[in-house]
Structures are given as C-alpha cells and as structure tokens.
Amino acid sequence: MTRDEAKQRIQALQDELHQYNYEYHVLDNPTVSDDYYDKTFRELINLEDEYPEFQTADSPTQRVGAEPLDQFVKVDHNVPMLSLGNAFNAQELRDFDRRVKERVGDQVRYVCELKIDGLAVSLLYENGQFVRGATRGDGKTGEDITQNLKTVKSIPLKIREEETIEVRGEVFMPKRSFLALNEARESNSEEPFANPRNAAAGSLRQLDPKIAARRNLDIFLYSVGEWEAATTASHSERLKYMKELGFKTNPETETFESIEDVIQFTEDWTVKRHELDYEIDGIVIKVDSIDLQERLGFTAKSPRWAIAYKFPAEEAVTTLHDIELSVGRTGAVTPTAILEPVQVAGTTVQRASLHNEDLIIEKDIRLHDTVIIKKAGDIIPEVVRVVTDERTGNEQVFRMPENCPECGEPLEQPGGEVAWRCVNPNCPAQLKEGLIHFVSRNAMNIDGLGEKVIEQLFDHELIQTIADLYKLTPDDLLPLERMGQKSVDNLLKAIETSKDNSLERLLFGLGIRFVGSKAADTLAAQFGTMDALMEADKDDFEAVPDIGDKMAASIATYFEQDQVKQLIDELKSLGLNMTYLGEIVEASEDSPFYDKTVVITGKFTDMNRQDIKAQIEALGGQVTGSVSKKTDILIAGDDAGSKYDKAVDLNVSIWDEAQLLETLEA
Ligand code: IVH
C-alpha cells in the first residue's frame, strides 16, 4: 500500500466507523454485526499505527487511551449554564404560564422535555470537531473533562457540518448499566453507588479516562450554548438541527399550545417514567420561540422562559417486621429490613438493604418500627427514616450478634471497616456463596447450575469446594429432587465443558477479593498461565495497568495460601484449563519484540511503565514480571535492582531507556 492509499483507506475507515457508531449509539439501530465492526476497527488501528501521521484527533480510535490527568483544568462558560426554577404541582405550572403571557402575550408554544437526572455538560465543536467538554460547575466556571466525555460513545467526535457550536446536555448512566455496575462492585467488595446519577458523576470525575470508558455512560443533548452562526428561530428547530448534526436528542420531546396539555404531559410521565431505562426527575417546559425567550429574559438565577416540573418524591410508609442477616462470599454480614409489602415507584417492596450496623444505629432503626421507604435513584429500596411519633414502646433495639449467624464463629471488624465479617474460611454460608459465584455467568458460566441447585448440592453435602463440582457423578445427582436423567446428563456435560474455559473465567471465579471480571481479564491476558500468576509477586501485579496496590496485595496474599495452592493443584489434576485463550494482539514478525519475553524494571524519565509495556505488547512482545531463563530482554531504567543482577547472571540482553526509545521510534 502506498502512503497515499493508506491515507485514503484511513479516511474511509474513519468515516465508516463514525457511521456505525452513530447508528449503534445514537439511533440505537446497528446495521453491521459486532464482529464486522471489530474487524474494521482493528484494521484502522493497525493502519494508524503504521501511518501515525494520518491519525486525526477525531478518529474513532481516539475515544480512550489518553493518559490520566493530574487535575482538571478550569473552563469558563461564555454563555452561563443556568439552572431552572421549579414547579411542584399543576397550579405552579399555570402560574408560570400566566407570568409568561403577561410579558409576551397569549401566543406561546411550549416544548416539553424529560428532565434527565444526570449531570449537565457542555460540548464544544470547532469546525465540526469535538474539541472540549466541560462540567457545569457553578454555571460560570466548570472543569475540562474532554478525555472522559470522549469515551461516551453517543457523543460524536465529529459532526455532520463544519459548524462551530457549543451544545449542552445531560450525561447519565442507564438503569441497567447502573445495576450491573453495582453488582460487579459488590462482588469485588467495593462500595456500591447510591443511584445512577452518583455513578455517572463519579465516572466523570475520574482523572483516568479508562474508568469512564468502562462505565457505559450515555447523553441526551437539549440546548445550544454559544453559537455565533445561529440560524434557527425556535427551540424545537434547534433540537431538530442538533439531531441532524448527529447529536442524540431525547425522542419523547413534545410541543404543546396550551398549559393544560403541558400538565397532562407531566401527569402521564409521572406514571410512565418507571418504564424508561434512565432516570428522570421531572419535565422541563421551555417557551419554543427564541424571540419570545429573548424578550422574557432572565431573573438573577434562571430564565423566565423555562421551568422544571419536579415529580413528587415517591415514598411509602410501612412496618419493619424483622432484620435478617446474610453472610456473603467475603464473609461480610449484611442486615436486610423485612418489611410489610408496600407499593413504591411502580413495584412492591418488601425488603430493603440496611447495609451495615452503623446505618442502623445512625437512623435508630428498631424492630417493629414504622418506617418511610423510598427507592434510591428510583431503583434500590431504602429506609429513609423512622416515624418516631408512631412508636408504641414495643419496638426493640437491634443488636448485631457476636457470632456468625451461619457458622457460629466470632464476628470481627477487621481494619476499622464498618462491616462485621465472619473470618472462618470454612463458614458454610461463605463456601456456598463462593460456589454460586464460581458458576455464575461472568465466571465459569455453567449452565443449569443456578443458585437453587448449588444450594441443593451443598445442603446434601455433595459439594463443599470448587473442586468437588468436578467430581460429581450421575449417582450423586439422580436421587436429588427435580433431577431427571436428562438434566443430570446436561449438567455434567456443562460442568465438563467449563473445564476448557479460558483462564480469566477461572481466575474471576476463584473470588479473590477486589478482583472483578475486568481485572481478571487483564491479569489473564498479561500473565498467560496460572503458574505465571502464582509465581508473580505483589510488584509484578502492580506493574499491570489498572491493577492498584490494594488489588495487587490481595492477589499476592491469596496465592500465598497453602489451601489455595492445594486447590489449584487439584483443579489441574481434574483437567481444568489453566491458560489464557483470548486473542493475543497480532504483530508483525519483523518487529524487534516479536515473540520476545521482556521484563521491565527501574525508573524511567521519558515514558511510564504502562506505556512501555503497552508498546512492547503491541509490537508482539510479552511482558512478564520476573527475570528467568525464558527472558529475552530486560528493559532497565534507573535504580534497577535485583532483576538487573539476575539478568546479568542469566546473560539476558539488557537495554536502557535510550536504546528502548530508539527502537520504538525506529
Ligand atoms: S434546560 C436554562 N433541559 O436540569 C436552561 N435541563 O435545573 C437550563 N436537565 O442544570 C437547562 N434535563 O442539569 C434542561 N431537558 C432538559 C434537562 C435539563 C435535565 C437538568 C440540567 C440543568 C437542570 C436545571
């Protein structure tokens, strides 16, 4: 391929991928398969690698990959990002309508939009290119979060006209993504987010864009900020134009001539809102005509031409009958309130997590109390507070037991955590939860082995450890309830098939604290085999991108345990695959690192370790943690220690930073 051909091909691939991206993330209507998309994307990555001079900032490959920032830079909003006045009932909407008409006469049309419960952001496009994204901040000054916003796939990196325009909208996390994220966080013993809004905010506040990239954020654009070449006469036309430019606008927007129709719209959505896959907290009503908007102007805080109708908070009163304790996979004991069933935000609620003892004490929640319930972020039931006026004197103060409710061993509060934990590694509740985790979808994904079956097998003492699963026989299973010959055959087949799973599934399934499925993926791809993982030390784990010191320490401690070593040996002899079967990045055979095993040690001036590692891997090398006979090259920065000595001993080729840079730049 000539340079010219490469340039054209890169351009064509970028255009093609922009279109697929738009169809998938903005229109929700993909026209090509994921495989085809991935293939096209890889072709572009490879070509841009080869011809970096043709890689543009708006290339679809440039969504992630920026380096973590030290801090966010401030951004001034030339057109302030205002907030809105609120209306809480129909009468307040009629008052708003009257105030508008007193100033501009009776001919007023209103646009009604869903009020998305997320974070307001500003997106700046110059000559059609996305150049800067910022938070609202205090309305006058926000923070530059371009790197994070670039990872939001429904934000176009390039729009359909070479327009210079600032648009505004709300970044949010879909409910489904929020639930999945919290589930993953809880299984990694991380604090769950209280609601989708906090999850979205937490993601945009990260200095490392890789975190936002994993969070599945989305956006609806709902207004124009600075726009010198403004051509449209109404807000609804602006929305239409934004859509034409390739922005994602909300499809539920409607225009009405009378305030009574507006009120009907707010009433309809008060009920329908729970059906949406994102949270809304009200309806925004805007005067459509830009001319009238300008005539109406602003009060000190907000525009006179718009108002936010806020849905009433959905709370319910009920009785707390009991507090149930459950012991999780990591031994944490979680209290749950058992409630008299009550309707809240579209569903019946009969349980609410109380999280930990501190929360019960803080809210002074007692057995048989009358409590107010709401759904945090419209989804997760929680106890807001106790109605103390309703107390009769029969309520009982709740005390955390001193012993594990499942195994009777004493509970501990290790390292000042709020959670009480059962630290008995043989606690049946923990073993059972551990097995449920092991067979779950993101782990070994064993079909037919749901929670119920695991419980059955466990209670019949057929399984206690993971290894026991692989020793089950038809004779064990046939006598069980609801187990016919066919389901037994299928189950044993599914267990057998799971032996061939790639390493990351097994690694995640082991349930090492803080190791989620993403981290397991990274570790498996990095180390390749279980043996390599078991030989590695804390520093080796820490050298892996995205693996922090807390996780590194937890993995190292985990593999040090004799019990774990025995388990792995047993799984090996039962025939479980212990290698990573995922895709290894293809690299050209003439690359200096092709098929080479490389170790990196010491401190570097011009590059950081993660970069060095990523570049070597992209060039076909494998980066490992410790120097051995298999090591081909040691990249040694300043202050290289024992790895350097060992490389000298083993006659491994040693490169300094200058030699590395020269090779990478060649
Ligand atoms: S219009 C002056 N439209 O609600 C115009 N805001 O209190 C101000 N919001 O800060 C914004 N959905 O974060 C507008 N369709 C929508 C909205 C919306 C959510 C948020 C936004 C704003 C706050 C207004």
UniProtKB/TrEMBL annotation:
InterPro entries: BRCT_dom, BRCT_dom_sf, DisA/LigA_HHH, DNA_ligase, DNA_ligase_AS, DNA_ligase_CS, DNAligase_adenylation, DNAligase_N
Positions with a binding annotation for Zn(2+): C404, C407, C422, C427
UniProt GO molecular function: DNA ligase (NAD+) activity
Gene3D superfamilies with a match to the protein in the record: 5' to 3' exonuclease, C-terminal subdomain, 6.20.10.30, BRCT domain, DNA ligase/mRNA capping enzyme, Helix hairpin bin, Nucleic acid-binding proteins
Binding site for NAD(+): D34, D35, Y36, Y37, D38, S83, L84, E113, R136, E170, K286, K310
E.C. number: 6.5.1.2
Enzyme class: ligase
Active site: K115
CDD domains (alphabetical): BRCT_DNA_ligase_like, LIGANc
Stretches assigned to the BRCT domain: 588-666
Cofactor(s) needed by this chain: Mg(2+); Mn(2+)
Catalytic activity line of the entry: NAD(+) + (deoxyribonucleotide)n-3'-hydroxyl + 5'-phospho-(deoxyribonucleotide)m = (deoxyribonucleotide)n+m + AMP + beta-nicotinamide D-nucleotide
Keywords from the UniProt entry: DNA damage, DNA repair, DNA replication, Ligase, Magnesium, Manganese, Metal-binding, NAD, Zinc
NCBIfam families reported in the protein's UniProt record: dnlj (TIGR00575), PRK07956.1 (NF005932)
The family this protein is said to belong to: Belongs to the NAD-dependent DNA ligase family. LigA subfamily.
Function, as annotated: DNA ligase that catalyzes the formation of phosphodiester linkages between 5'-phosphoryl and 3'-hydroxyl groups in double-stranded DNA using NAD as a coenzyme and as the energy source for the reaction. It is essential for DNA replication and repair of damaged DNA.
Protein name per the record: DNA ligase
